[in-house]
Amino acid sequence: MSIPNLVDLLFPPKCVICQKLVGLGETICPDCARSLPFASGGKARQKGDFFEGCYSPFFYEEPLRASFLRYKFSGRQHYARIYGKWMADCLIAQEQLTFDLVTWAPLSRLRRWRRGYDQAELLAREVSSQLGLPLQSTLHKANRKPLSRLEGSRSIRAARILGAYSLGNGANVAGKRILLVDDIVTSGATLNECARILKTAGAAEIICVTLARKRD
Fold first, then answer.
1. For the residues 5-20, what does the mean pLDDT come to?
2. pTM value surpassing 0.70
């Protein structure tokens, strides 16, 4: 028996949404594929203060939400492969393909150490691989209270995240068109702050992509 077949027997593939068994080489069952909360056209919002556009294939709703929480908090790192492909397909459909590099909105070093991985980085790696684009770490996040636990209006959240990110050592973004990757976009404060840092460092244009967005 070959090693791949043995692996399939020991760890049979499951749907990334409902976790039911699927066929070899499959990642999602037909029922879940039909029930995903597709965001029409993939467009999240036309632009932010510091980024020119943001694309998301889905709304952040069930049944995707439960799947994403397993990915983010329960170690389902392999979900990044299918999530990243969905994100790349969204960009292809919107003809957003010409970038100098792909980067991501990083976790702080402390949070990455506690979780064991950075979920946005895994998505960025898959998106860059799918699109054949170079991947580069450009940002650093300070160890501070995460935005997701902060309450308030969009303007208050933006003010609280101000200064959370800085340009990474040796990052060269001057004059470049950048694809900025994150997992979920809600208020857009995180993406806007990351884009602000990159624009301040001379980036020419920033397009964002996330797996899902909050419905307007």
1. 75
2. yes
